[in-house]
UniProtKB/TrEMBL annotation:
This is ABC transporter ATP-binding protein. The lineage of its organism: Bacteria, Pseudomonadati, Pseudomonadota, Alphaproteobacteria, Hyphomicrobiales. It comes from Aureimonas ureilytica. It comes from the Bacteria. The keyword Thylakoid does not apply. The keyword Ion transport applies. Residues 1-230 form the ABC transporter domain.
Length: 265
């Protein structure tokens, strides 16, 4: 996938300005930014739900059907009589009409995907009664069962405990390489992704800095992106961003804008 100089406005407000980056097969990319930075708008633009006023999104093969998508919010009623395997199987029929007939081939595909995301042990449980981490594994299986070339995930790590976050990140890193699927994952906090990311797209004020984490998460790059002084501090394998507000007063950003994108737990 390649995004070329995309500019997007919604209701007369500029959301994304001159966004440009590319993803190769099997590459894991973190889309990092605070609330309102344009992460979801960028994902919706790639999906074709939002049209850029200038620039373009180019997909390998030219087909958006080759994209898997895990949305930010997915309400699952605990009483819904839908098993984990049923939700995964629904992913086979996204481009088809009618009621599919059961077959050994369909069940084999579902079983293989459940095993790939390590969800086979709870495949026959109701989806609404699973933990947050288990639900994310099932949603990922649903999105990947047709083997898309690109997988988009909108805040999949939100509201998960530390163990589940680590497990989901490791799972996505493994699957991206195994299936040669490019992964674009949006998040506020880059720290859980540091060991997995091949590159980063860092959004602020509608603009983006892209490249490797080492190349992008630097004082001079983020200062230029935000328009005021940003200090990047690396401590014990984690990243702390310390900003100076426009008045010049230093503050450690532990959840506020701009660096809620690199929160320190």
């Amino acid at each position: 996938m390649e995004v070329r100089k995309a500019r997007v406005s919604l209701a007369g407000r500029l959301i994304l300005d001159d966004i440009e980056f590319a993803l190769r097969p099997g590459e894991f990319c973190g889309l990092i930014g605070s609330n309102g930075s344009g992460k979801t708008t960028l994902l919706r633009t790639i999906l074709g739900f939002v049209s850029p006023e200038s620039g373009r999104v180019m997909l390998g093969g030219g087909k958006r059907a080759a994209i898997g998508y895990v949305p930010q919010k997915f309400a699952l009623d605990p009483l819904m009589p839908l098993r984990a395997r049923d939700l995964v199987e629904l992913g086979l029929d996204g481009a088809r009409f009618g009621i599919p007939l059961p077959s050994r081939a369909r069940r084999a595909k579902v079983d293989a995907m459940l095993q790939a995301v390590e969800a086979d042990s709870f495949a026959d449980q109701r989806i609404g009664r699973l933990s947050g981490g288990q639900q994310q594994r099932v949603l990922i299986a649903h999105a990947l069962i047709r083997r898309p070339r690109l997988l988009l995930l909108d805040e999949p790590l939100a509201n998960l405990d530390i163990r589940s976050v680590a497990g989901i990140v490791a799972l996505l890193r493994r699957l991206s390489r195994e299936f040669q699927t490019a992964v674009l994952l949006s998040a506020h906090d880059m720290n859980p992704l540091l060991s997995a990311m091949d590159r980063i797209v860092y959004l602020a004020h509608g603009r983006a800095a892209t490249g490797s984490t080492q190349a992008v998460v630097r004082t001079e790059v983020l200062s230029r992106l935000y328009g005021f002084r940003i200090d990047v501090i690396r401590v014990h394998g984690r990243i702390l961003v310390v900003a100076a507000d426009p008045a010049g007063e230093a503050l450690a950003t532990l959840g506020g804008d701009p660096a809620s994108v690199v929160q320190i737990p």
